[in-house]
Write a sequence for this structure.
């Protein structure tokens, strides 16, 4: 730890805590998860960066979506994301969550993940190397420092739109809204 | 090989309108009619072919037919048997084979979902993989996936740009 960051620690200890203990929810979607075992084990050792996988979403604050997302998986992703405590950060890993990738004309794979949950960072590539995860983590540090990783705030603010998009795919959702949806505002628009 | 030929002779003798072929070593294809399917499967099971590996479906759109392929194997013999049945594409229906092979339930449920073939006698044909599906079954040849993507996924608006407008 250099001397410059001492001031940061004193000023905003909470933020520094979030920054250096990004606990990732162990959620596997698609083929990108094959890059995660070497990342968290001794070869690349993600714990140097404070990233460790945890078993439940309630302990996690980093969510990596590691590959194509089918409709059934999206349902689980939304439920997992809503269970995570704030502040929470999401990173889409690989080209499939960005624009569908090689599943761009598939009938059962969603094309743009950011229409359903907010995304803070994207890692492009098919597949990205494990080093790309560390570049993403350090970028995420910078974003947290500047206050730019605002995915969860956007989710709260635009929850009405996210929920509407989710309902367009699934029909009626089986769980109640996470945040209250103001119906009156809808009518006035 | 001699055993296989004897099996072929016996099947062709008992069941009419049935052709048995050997496309390659240890593969046997039985093409038959719809009403012969259950007796043939029962006969094969009594011969030791007790394992139903899969049921697959092929859409022959030009001939307006679905072809159901029942793959049966034995743990004691290297022979792999495919029983092929053709059914009409319009209002496709088939008898369930759950009485002979219990594990056919899930295979039939999947084919019902992806091709729209109804299996009479199967107690549970609810959707297995798809969510909120409102188009024709997706594995049919006349289903256009690009059209479907344009209709469903591309019409969902971006959240951020929407919010800036309002």
């Amino acid at each position: 730890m250099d001397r410059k960051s001492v001031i940061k620690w004193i000023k905003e200890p909470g933020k520094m805590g979030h920054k250096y203990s990004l606990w990732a929810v162990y959620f596997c979607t698609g083929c990108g998860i094959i890059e995660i075992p070497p990342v968290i084990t001794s070869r690349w050792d993600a714990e140097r960066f404070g990233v460790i996988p945890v078993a439940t979403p309630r302990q996690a604050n980093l969510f990596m979506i590691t590959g194509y997302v089918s409709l059934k998986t999206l349902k689980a992703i939304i439920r997992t994301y809503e269970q995570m405590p704030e502040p929470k950060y999401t990173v889409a890993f690989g080209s499939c969550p960005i624009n569908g990738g090689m599943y761009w004309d598939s009938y059962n794979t969603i094309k743009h993940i950011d229409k359903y949950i907010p995304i803070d960072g994207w890692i492009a590539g098919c597949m990205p190397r494990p080093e790309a995860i560390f570049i993403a983590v350090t970028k995420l540090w910078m974003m947290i420092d500047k206050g730019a990783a605002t995915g969860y705030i956007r989710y709260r603010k635009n929850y009405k739109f996210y929920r509407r998009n989710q309902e367009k795919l699934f029909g009626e959702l089986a769980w109640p809204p996470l945040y209250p949806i103001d119906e009156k505002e809808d009518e006035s628009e | 090989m001699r055993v296989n030929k004897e099996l072929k002779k016996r099947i062709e003798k008992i069941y009419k309108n049935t052709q048995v072929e050997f496309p390659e070593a240890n593969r046997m294809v039985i093409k038959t009619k719809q009403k012969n399917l259950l007796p043939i499967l029962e006969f094969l099971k009594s011969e030791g072919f007790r394992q139903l590996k899969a049921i697959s479906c092929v859409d022959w759109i030009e001939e307006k037919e679905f072809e159901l392929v029942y793959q049966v194997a034995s743990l004691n013999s290297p022979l792999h048997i495919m029983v092929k049945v053709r059914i009409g594409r319009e209002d496709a229906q088939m008898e369930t084979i759950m009485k002979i092979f219990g594990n056919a339930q899930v295979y039939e449920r999947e084919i019902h979902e992806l091709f729209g073939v109804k299996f009479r006698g199967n107690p549970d044909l609810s959707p297995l993989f798809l969510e909120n599906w409102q188009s024709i079954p997706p594995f049919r040849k006349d289903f256009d996936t690009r059209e479907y993507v344009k209709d469903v996924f591309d019409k969902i608006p971006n959240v951020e740009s929407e919010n800036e407008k309002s």
